[in-house]
Design goal:
With 355 residues, the protein is of the alpha/beta class. The protein is built from 12 helices and 11 strands. The longest helix is centred in the N-terminal third of the chain and has 22 residues. Bound molecules: nicotinamide-adenine-dinucleotide (NAD) and 2'deoxy-thymidine-5'-diphospho-alpha-D-glucose. 2'deoxy-thymidine-5'-diphospho-alpha-D-glucose (DAU) binds next to helix 6 and strand 8.
Length: 355
């Protein structure tokens, strides 16, 4: 792992991973390709450890010419592919960019890797790691067992269908061309640098601004929450030691109802940044997300047994650390909230829900 192409490294998980990798691999050079959509920001890449080994390239993963050039010029031997349109609600209101980036973009990267590495990439130590989601497996009922790597795909939103599609392409390139791939499917991440369209940062920032906390439907949906650094560690282990052609499920084992998670976030804020009344009084149940998946849960037996990975953070410590991070980084918050598209998105997604 000498010349690593990270796609989407100016986004939430990608920027955390770039930090992680620069520390974990002191000899690696990191080429970070990101289109800087509304979700990506150079603010996420300030104060990198050993920044001289990091090169940022603004560009689109659908640009075959650019990607081909990057592989050649920098002798890329490893790819960690994060770049995606990632927000389910946006995929419902406008699916086209999800099809373009998540499917066509992944295809473009796979083709570039195939051209650059030829048929013997695996014996020369090349690796293409694709970062995917638990949402490809669909929705669980309360009594269903957690998703395993062999659970059939049943995506239910344009976002999850586009990610499922990209996973199939990655596997097809392994079987057909012998491209040295690995895939991880992970549950909901939270932590530093998460764009405030997602549940936890949205709740923190709305609460601090005295705005309603919009909980979709009855708030009894369940997600399997994982602190972002734990996700980075799992990806790194798969990249180093995962078996080629294999998929690994990653999850946090923390499965509160959304409404309980929002209440817990409010309690932490009540303690760290007291207001005249509890922030929980701002909670407002609003119109549900169409096709809203009820429950996700990940069975992590495979990655634990094969690679020795388990999450280091539970939801109590991770959520507290996250609230503390946002409170300590209000300068970051200010810049991100002023960026083009943020307040438009709040109007577009929430006004019609009654908040
Ligand atoms: P994010 O939306 O915060 O970041 C996505 C990044 O990709 C942004 O920096 C954006 O500018 C970039 N990007 C988008 N389109 C691009 C294009 N065409 N070319 C180049 N760059 C482009 O997303 P995230 O939450 O950090 O998720 C990263 C990856 O992890 C995604 O593939 C997502 O499906 C997956 N994932 C996310 C979660 C989660 O909870 N956030 C969980 C499991 C898997
Ligand atoms: O499960 C992994 C996925 O987690 C990733 O693949 C996606 O990229 C990531 O965005 C996330 O998807 P979710 O839809 O689960 O995350 P989100 O933060 O948007 O919503 C979490 C839950 O909270 C979900 O049940 C919807 C609910 N919600 C969300 C928002 C934004 C609300 O109740 N109110 C809100 O305003």
């Amino acid at each position: 792992m000498r010349n690593v192409l990270v796609t989407g490294g100016a986004g939430f998980i990608g920027s955390n991973f770039v930090r992680y990798l620069l520390k974990a691999e002191p000899d690696a050079r990191v080429f970070n390709l990101d289109a800087l959509t509304y979700a990506g920001s150079l603010e996420n890449l300030k104060d990198l450890p050993d920044a001289s080994r990091h090169t940022f390239i603004q560009g689109d993963i659908c640009d075959a010419g650019l990607i081909g050039k990057l592989f050649q010029e920098h002798q890329i031997d490893s790819v960690v592919h994060f770049a995606a349109e990632s927000h389910v609600d946006r995929s419902i209101l406008g699916p086209a960019p999800f099809i373009q980036t998540n499917i066509v973009g992944t295809f473009t990267l796979l083709e570039a890797a195939r051209q650059a590495w030829g048929a013997d990439g695996s014996t020369r130590g090349m690796r293409f790691h694709h970062v995917s989601t638990d949402e490809v497996f669909g929705s669980l009922d309360a009594s269903d067992s957690a998703f395993t790597e062999s659970t059939p795909y049943e995506p239910r939103s344009p976002y999850s269908a586009s990610k499922a599609s990209s996973d199939h392409l990655v596997r097809a390139y392994f079987h057909t061309y012998g491209l040295p791939v690995t895939i991880t499917n992970c549950s909901n991440n939270y932590g530093p640098y998460q764009y405030p369209e997602k549940l936890i940062p949205l709740m923190i920032l709305n609460a601090l601004r005295g705005k309603p906390l919009p909980v979709y439907g009855d708030g009894k949906q369940i997600r399997d929450w994982l602190f972002v650094e734990d996700h980075c560690e799992a990806i790194y282990l798969v990249l180093k030691n995962g078996r080629l052609g294999e998929t690994y499920n990653i999850g946090g084992g923390n499965q509160p109802y959304n409404i309980d998670l929002v209440n817990e976030t409010c309690s932490i804020l009540d303690e760290l940044k007291p207001s005249t009344t509890s922030y929980s009084e701002l909670i407002a149940h609003v119109t549900d997300r169409p096709g809203h998946d009820r429950r996700y849960a990940m069975d992590i037996t495979k990655i634990r047994n094969e690679l020795g990975w388990t999450p280091r953070h539970d939801i109590e410590s991770g959520l507290r650390a996250t609230v503390q991070w946002y409170l300590a980084h209000m300068d970051w918050v200010e810049v991100i909230m002023k960026q083009e598209g943020f307040s438009d998105w709040l109007d577009k997604n929430y006004a019609r829900r009654g908040t």
